[in-house]
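=== Structure Prediction Worksheet ===
Name of assembly: unnamed complex
Input type: mixed (protein and possibly other molecules)
Chain count: two
Listed entries:
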Amino acid sequence: MIEIRFHGRGGQGAVIASNILAEAAFLEGKSVSAFPYFGVERRGAPVTAYTRIDDKEIRVKSGIYEPDYVIVMDQSLIKAVDVVAGLKPGGKVIINTTKSPGDFDLGEAEVHTVDATGIAIDNRLGSKAAPIVNSAILGGFIKISGVVELDSLLKGVRSLAPVKKEENATAADQAYSKVVS
Amino acid sequence: MVKAVISGNSASAYGAKIAKAEVIAAYPITPQTSIIEKIASFVANGEFKTEFVKVESEHSAMAACVAASLTGARTYTASSSHGLLLMHEMLIWASGARTPIVMSNVNRANGPPWSVWADQHDTMAQRDTGWMQIYCESNQEVLDSILMSYKIGESPDIMIPSMIIEDAFILSHTVEPVDIPDQDAVDDFLPPFAPEKKLDPDDPHGFGSLVMPEWYMEFRYKIAESMDLARDRIREVEKDFEKRFGRSYGGLMDFYEVEDADAVLMIGGSVASTAKEVIDKMRKEGKKVGLARVRYFRPFPVDEVRWLAKKVNKIGVVDRSYCFGHGGPIAAEVYGALLPTGDRPIVKNFIAGLGGKDITPEVLERLFNKMLVTNESGTEKEIEWVDVKGHSLGVE
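=== Predicted Assembly ===
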């Protein structure tokens, strides 16, 4: 079973991102589940969401405490939240930032970065002040993890993005080839 | 049939839609809100022809459902926690008026302290309202139970409302694959609601009027009789459903690996799903453990509990709520069901997961291990609270 944890801020689309990833894996015939941890529901507050992917039926319905991967949708969260808490040895982290992986000290974690904010703004997703970065960072994430094929992700994005389906798919596609490792 | 990755709340909305509920009256409350949002979008898109009544409270929602049901309309609503508590008076009215309403309730803790997370206290507090209660373990079961509950409740000899219960967030906001049956297959399984008597200006009847003491008890007895009869109807309808749709859930109580079990946990709700995973792991290690999932809490699976007590010597009842004063509600029913029989397994009551405290595989494994080693019977530590700060369960 592959377990993925998303860290975002309210309004960035973390919960939909966890659903899109589940949908993409489902389209490949996998068993999936995805769920949010809701704290206080307001724009800007830290949000955590999770996705599970497995070849057999997923029956565990408790939280994810030892993820294989962590997706950080806002680099400022790293100061506020222990984003690598419980990350499995050899686990990978992808951060939405213009910085390089070497700029982050996250212990044993293998760090990758992608400028999902820049890509989201280029594709007019959300506003410049509050871009919606979920489809972009998913493109970067599947490049470093290979948990689903790009084609499945694009189908998932088109199926679940509430608006601007093509722009979201383009953002995911662009981010796929712009990851810094 | 469409297979989609949807939440428990979406599964509820699809259930109401393909059951062709004709009147829906509901008031939003976290974490139920997305059920009625989804229904509202179905109605706005024109894909669901139903009378969607916006009301000013849950009490009014249930009052509207009762009146609509009396006119012969299939009715649906959804609520949670404080909304359900506000409905309490009308819940009793609904069963007394013999209206087979189906309601989804998202199990959420009651305040204060304020909490929006999973806990069974809201529905357990409705035990005596005369509603059937189904505690679901998956989003598929949520959808399927709505369809089956209309068929069971609308039988002329039953005429009792049903509450379909999904854990807050763990089911309500978790997406997982769900088969949404074809409309034709559902229509074939579930014909339109056709009560023998209904509110009709052309054929007037009185409903809910005063009865003198010489008749009140007889009306109550009829409800009791129907609730008892519902046990067989639940089993029959599920068999029919399984034949048509290929899925079943164990009737009133769902057993997993109990035949040769040394210890069994009894649980209602989505935690049962996690427990099945834990059981497979522990059985590989040679530990004979099993699960009795309380699917129906009302009517209570008395025969199933008595059957289980003949098979196993240790039953740990996990309650996700507490009746202040003495014990968890499921455990109380188990003690009550076993008292008239000669079978006396060790029964312990664990109180766990209140207010959304996560019941993880690790917690369940500890409870199974505790049951395997326990030899305590009688009143010694019969009720234990699990993982309460400053209070040790005394088992690793």
